[in-house]
Amino acid sequence: MSVAEVVARGAALGVRVTISDHISREAPTTVDSVAAIEHYLDDLNQYDVLRGGEFCWHDALWRELPPALLRRFTHRVGSLHAVRLLNGSYFRAFSQVMPADLPPHVYMEAHVASLEALAGEMPVDVLAHPTLVPPPLRTIHPHELWTEALEERAVHALVVGGQAFEISNRYPPHERLVRRAADAGVRLSLGSDGHAREQVANIAAPLALARRIGVSDDALYDPARHGSRTGAYTE
């Protein structure tokens, strides 16, 4: 979809659009260098959109951006598309097979440890899809994967790091964790994470969850009101 098409889609759903394309050296994105990021932001300046970007924690590109470029974003998003294991290697969040020596509880320890590192290291405003796990683990009930101790660690990391918790429409988190984050004062961010036309700008389910646990619309993360850690963005 073109940016204009995304804007039109958002207007039809009553949503002001934020464009947060993947920014990484890895396929399938083409926003994979400082020059490509500059072009991306130049393009977004032509539209009434918020200028985001989704950076991978395990890809060092985010460490190489000059401050002047960072300030052109209205906000930035950090993602755990891979987690760091105890041996220092990275395991992809979209891997279809789990090794025998990586049982669910070991993976979840690595996931939360990586989340803590992301929150402490990355100057981002939102943690995207905090509960994204590899496909083989998605059939396990969230309360079995996420112990309350792991949830406490994840929420504490966001409190200290100052990032918002995304309620993702594509990878919805379980309510207990969302409620724990909200009760700790972590702002909630609504994300469609649209990868197909019918998904783009669809935040109905994330908004319903936020309202169900008593979070007011005004309290949701909005870079137009709450600013960014990477620059003094104002409307």
- Global shape: globular
How many helical stretches?
9
Strand order of the largest sheet: 2-4-5-8-9-10
User: Strand pairing plus helix content: what structural class?
Assistant: alpha/beta
Architecture (CATH level 2) name: Alpha-Beta Barrel
In quaternary terms, these chains amount to single chain
pLDDT < 50 stretches: none
What do these coordinates show?
The chain is of the alpha/beta class and 235 residues long. It has a single domain, classed as TIM Barrel (Alpha-Beta Barrel). Helices cover 35% and strands 12% of the residues. The protein contains nine helices and ten strands. A six-stranded parallel beta sheet has the order 2-4-5-8-9-10. A two-stranded parallel ribbon has the order 1-3. Strands 6-7 form a two-stranded antiparallel sheet. Helix 4 runs parallel beside helix 6. The longest helix has 18 residues. The model has no long low-confidence stretch (mean pLDDT 94).
